[in-house]
Design goal:
Layout lengths: L5 E2 H14 L3 H11 L16 H16 L57 E2 L2 E2 L11 E4 L5 E3 L41 E2 L5 E4 L6 E7 L6 E7 L1 E6 L12 E3 L7 E8 L5 E10 L5 E11 L4 E6 L5 E7 L4 E7 L4 E7 L7 E3 L5 E6 L4 E6 L2 E7 L3 E6 L8 E5 L4 E6 L4 E6 L2 E9 L5 E6 L15 E6 L3 E6 L5 E7 L8 E4 L6 E5 L2 E5 L9 E4 L13 E5 L5 E6 L2 E6 L9
Parallel strand pairs: 6-35
Antiparallel strand pairs: 1-4, 2-3, 4-5, 7-38, 8-9, 9-10, 10-11, 12-13, 13-14, 14-15, 16-17, 17-18, 18-19, 20-21, 21-22, 22-23, 24-25, 25-26, 26-27, 28-29, 29-30, 30-31, 32-33, 33-34, 34-35, 36-37, 37-38
Helix pairs in contact: 1-2
Length: 578
């Protein structure tokens, strides 16, 4: 059997990737400066799976165990020393504003070189001879292993007289802060403890029978409230600044002119106004059930409610556009749908369209354009005096969810039942690119928020995170469909039914049943934090949809399932990790 020969480029790339995945962004940056400016341009880079170096090492240890006759060649014992330092865990790169997954070039085409060093720059020296940096080699040096397990060069392009630098004589570089990120999926590797978010959880129980929460919306930073809506419930909760581990703060039911209703969609219009779509079930004198759908405007912090429309149909989606002060509503049935755009306080929508397909979701793109998806349907609409379909994409998929990225102009859509992920990139609007979803039971998707869009580099990956109830979340580079950057595994392998990004995009959380798991989407690896509901406070078997969301400050998570809501404290000062 022929074993693939390793080159120095392959070995360096594996180490470079490991350093990034382990959170040692500074070390990865130093390696790339001494070797090649952009390792991702190497021809084999796209074939390297996440955590490849760890997998290779683990496979080697396993092979050593299988062939060992009495004694292993590699034995590190049970005591591996303390985990790596937790100092300055938030500092993941050498230079400000440089993503830890990327080494950016300056305007002259060279790698940035503003690392703090002791004593300034100096050239490497061996036996009094100054060693010049070698030119980059596209193919690298072929390497192999001898019978003693020591790496040796068997083919080289280095001159015989070229000096080799010893570790003792390498340049003196100031010790740099390192991160606290984990190093992948290997259970054999020691990492820092995942932060436990359970101790200071505030539990909110909906005690009235028949009431179920399906939607949760946080208020603004100035209003520490949580709005819960669902079956026969529309309630405001005042959330304490710190968790208590017991019931939440005071709550107040909002009065609306409906009885026995179910909330189908809801959105904030401002910090004190919201729009609610609800389906009311009534029984007439003859015992017949009648169902009506209504659109309701909540004003003055929910103290006032008025019906906008009783003929909007069953509204499945509401999207507010703060810039243009317009409300987009999507109504649908099994065979067809309607699109309505309302001006603020309108009782009749000035813009209406009736596609022949069922519509399931929508997202604003600009002040006047939006994308909608549904059964064999993905289209962009524009408002220019009237509502027109600007572009329709050829598709056979049943697209149930759609997201728009305002940073790069990318559209992402999900067909959950058909297990497919779709991408429309602005560089090529003609096709809808589709990809079979790799994990069973596709459940949710979302783009990483970038509050300061000027800080984003066009050469950086654009992160799209998806989840599945198989217990795995995927981090994709939407700029390179369909490049998977990280696979994130739920704590205790629990399902991931829904996900939510922190407002600053630094963290992503996924929830399912009785577990919430939090990662750094850029770094991947093991979770940063995890929450598991206490059995006496949380019913993992409660029936109903789950809802997950961060508060505007990124300090709390609200996870709702059935008739219960957990307010999870997430203070980023914990052990310097979060």
């Amino acid at each position: 059997m022929t074993v693939e020969a390793l080159s120095s480029n392959v070995v360096n790339y594996l180490v470079w990737r490991y350093l990034q995945e382990a959170g040692y962004g500074n070390a990865a940056l130093q390696l790339s400066r001494s070797w090649i400016r952009d390792p991702e341009t190497l021809p084999f880079a796209k074939n390297v799976i996440p955590h490849a170096l760890i997998s290779i090492l683990q496979d080697g240890l396993w092979f050593d165990k299988l062939q060992a006759d009495g004694q292993h060649r590699y034995n590190f014992g049970r005591d591996h020393g303390r985990p790596f330092s937790l100092r300055n865990g938030a500092t993941l790169t050498l230079d400000a504003d440089i993503p830890r997954h990327e080494v950016q070039e300056d305007t002259n085409g060279s790698a940035p070189d503003n690392a703090p060093r002791k004593g300034g720059k100096r050239k490497r020296k061996t036996n009094g001879v100054v060693e010049q940096r070698m030119e980059q080699r596209t193919n690298g040096d072929a390497m192999d292993l001898d019978h003693n397990g020591v790496s040796q060069v068997i083919h080289t392009s280095r001159g015989e007289s070229e000096a080799i630098v010893s570790d003792m004589e390498s340049p003196t570089v100031e010790e740099l802060p390192i991160s606290t990120l984990s190093i992948g999926h290997s259970t054999e590797i020691q990492t820092e403890k995942v932060v436990d978010l359970a101790p200071e959880t505030t539990y909110v129980k909906i005690k009235e029978p028949g009431k179920v929460v399906t939607h949760t919306l946080w208020g603004s930073s100035q209003a520490p409230i949580l709005l819960t809506a669902g079956k026969s419930i529309l309630r405001l909760h005042l959330i304490p600044s710190s968790g208590t581990g017991h019931s939440g703060g005071p709550s107040r039911d909002l009065k609306i002119p409906l009885n026995n209703f179910t909330t189908t969609a809801i959105c904030w219009n401002s910090h004190e106004e919201a729009t609610l779509a609800a389906r009311e079930e009534q029984v007439n004198e003859e015992g017949e059930k009648m169902i009506t759908d209504k659109l309701i405007k909540l004003t003055d912090g929910g103290t006032e409610a008025r019906i906008l429309s009783s003929v909007a149909g069953m509204v499945s989606t509401l999207r507010w556009n703060g810039s243009s002060q317009k409300l987009l509503s999507i109504s649908t049935n099994d065979v067809a749908g309607s699109i309505k755009v309302w001006n603020d306080d309108d009782t009749t929508p000035p813009f209406i369209a009736f596609p022949k397909q069922a519509i399931l979701d929508a997202a604003w793109m600009t002040d006047t354009s939006f994308v909608v998806c549904g059964d064999h349907f993905l289209s962009i609409y524009d408002i220019d005096g009237e509502l027109k379909c600007q572009k329709s994409f050829d598709t056979d998929g049943n697209w149930e969810s759609v997201k728009y990225d305002p940073v790069c102009g990318i559209i992402a859509c999900a067909a959950f039942e058909e297990m497919a992920l779709g991408i429309v990139h602005p560089n090529d609007l003609a096709p809808l690119q589709t990809h079979p979803y790799p994990d069973e039971y596709f459940s949710d998707l979302g783009f990483q928020p970038i509050p300061n869009q000027n800080s984003y580099s066009s050469s950086s990956p654009r992160l799209l995170v998806t989840s599945s109830t198989a217990g795995v979340a995927q981090v994709w580079n939407a700029n390179r469909p369909f490049e998977c950057i990280h696979r994130l595994v739920m704590e205790s392998n629990r399902p991931a039914c829904c996900l939510a990004f922190s407002p600053d995009g630094f963290l992503v959380a996924a929830a399912g049943l009785d577990t919430v798991t939090v990662w750094s989407p850029e770094s991947g690896g093991l979770p940063k934090a995890a929450w598991k509901g206490h059995t006496e406070e949380w019913d993992a078997n409660a029936e109903g949809e789950c809802s997950l969301g961060w508060d505007p400050d990124g300090k709390k998570l609200a996870y709702a399932l059935g008739n219960q809501v957990a307010i999870i404290n997430f203070q980023r000062t914990i052990t310097g990790v979060v």
